[in-house]
Each structure stands twice: as C-alpha cells, then as structure tokens.
Amino acid sequence: MAVARKGWTVIDCPDPDALARFYADLLGGEPRRGAGGQEEPVSDRWVELTTEDGWKLAFQRAEDFVPPRWPSGERSQQMHLDVYVDDIAATEPAVLELGARALDTDDEGGKRGFRVYADPAGHPFCLVRQS
Questions:
Q1: How far, in Å, are 29, 48, 54, 64 from residue 26 at the CA level?
Q2: pTM (two decimals)
Q3: pLDDT tens for residues 11-46?
Q4: Which end of the chain is more exposed for a tag (fewer CB within 10 A), N or C?
C-alpha cells in the first residue's frame, strides 16, 4: 500500500510565467498563478499548469537561478521531462519556435528514438518517439 500519491512536478526557474507559458504551448493547458499548495495568497513566485491529459507541473521562482548544463556532472540536470511525440523530426521546428534550444539531436537516423532540448530556462527535456 502506498503511503503517498503524486502531486506537482515543481521546476525552479527565473520567470515562472514565461516557463509555464512555454510548457502550456508545448503540452496544452492554461497556466494559472497559485500559492504553492500553501495557505498563502496567490503569488507571482508560483505558476501552475495542468496539461490537457492531467500532467501537473508547477514553476517556482528561484532567485539567482543557475541553469543545469547537459551533459555535465558539475551542474547536473537533476531531473528532466520526457515528452512523447509521434514524429520527432516534424515536431522539432515547433519546439524550437516556442523557444527551446537543441542540445543533442543526433538520434542516429531515428534509431535512438529521442532528441534532447533545453527549455527557455535551460532545463533539459527530451522529445521521445512514442511507440
């Protein structure tokens, strides 16, 4: 028996509104200001996004944010998101137009099945071919 259940995936960033908008454009849903699950007023330090398929992401302002470096043990990514798509090559231009940056797009002619990008705040995420 589980002792907990899933909650928010919280991502530190310098601008919660901008990063929430990026992920809303990528995954669907509408960002909204929240209180970080706390008994406090709504704040610009915390923005929530529930995607159209129910994924719950939150974006939290982190002062003096230093983005991860991929791949690097010195400033490791700590975590990343896998985003499933039908066609990676067809999706890539839209992701770049939204503000993502390509990190590793050598998918070995499609054999590897994923490509790595950074969101506008520098967090790595992967476009993964959905099988």
A1: 9, 15, 14, 26
A2: 0.78
A3: 999 999 999 999 999 999 999 987 555 555 567 789
A4: N
Q: How far apart are CA 13 and CA 56, in angstroms?
A: 16
CB atoms within 10 A of CB 35: 13
Distances (CA, A) of 80 to 1, 41, 103, 125: 27, 29, 13, 5
Domain 81-129: CATH architecture, name and number where available: Roll (3.10)
What is the torsional sign of CA 118, 66, 77, 25?
A: negative
Say which amino acid occupies 57. Answer: L
Domain boundaries, the chain: 9-61, 81-129
